[in-house]
Amino acid sequence: METIFVHLITLAEGNPEMSISNLLLKATPVVKGVLLVLVLMSVISWYIIVYKWLYLRRAQGESGLFLETFWQSKRLDEIYQTSEHLKRSPISQVFRAGYVELTKLKGNRETGDTMVGQMDDIENIERALRRARTAEIIQLGSLTPFLATTASAAPFVGLFGTVWGIMSSFLNIAAKGDASLLTVAPGIAEALIATAIGLVAAIPAVMFYNYFVNRTRVLEADMDNFGNDFLNIVKRHFF
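Now predict its structure.
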């Protein structure tokens, strides 16, 4: 195998037609289709990577600002006004859902409510927090499944191009009756290019997918902790 690679490099250096650009132009339609699919997957993956990195970075930054405001302020209405400017923070959105539900319950409460009524009110607030948390988790996890798909599928798409390139080499041998390296080199080169592009598309996708999943889990834990803290504050001060 090492000898084959050495001969391929030698042929490429001495033959301009063995350059990567010429090989891509003269590749079979199937290999060109494979390369086009891989390039599209890579471009879309990098768009998602940049977008999600900026989105999660802003979400984490705004969440930190919101938590700082929440624990320093003593009035929920002031915190609510601050949260209007931190819409990328999932924690602030959870707070807004709980605050809106609490405001509705305070407006509808009548004097002489029983303990059962108060427990229902607490459950309503808890459900509002849970719904907001679920919505934010869905938002945080959007687009990242495509990275997982690229990470798992791109190597196999590249492998298909590899198999097709090697098959083309054998067909050239059969057609020309010549098993020299010059005959099989173009097909092998196409196969190697397809494999390389498949890995180029898959490796960043899997790395950043794992990174985004970890960042999302941190924000999920922060939402859980905040929801419990907010519910305890509501129970202590309003019920």
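The longest helix spans residues 181-238.
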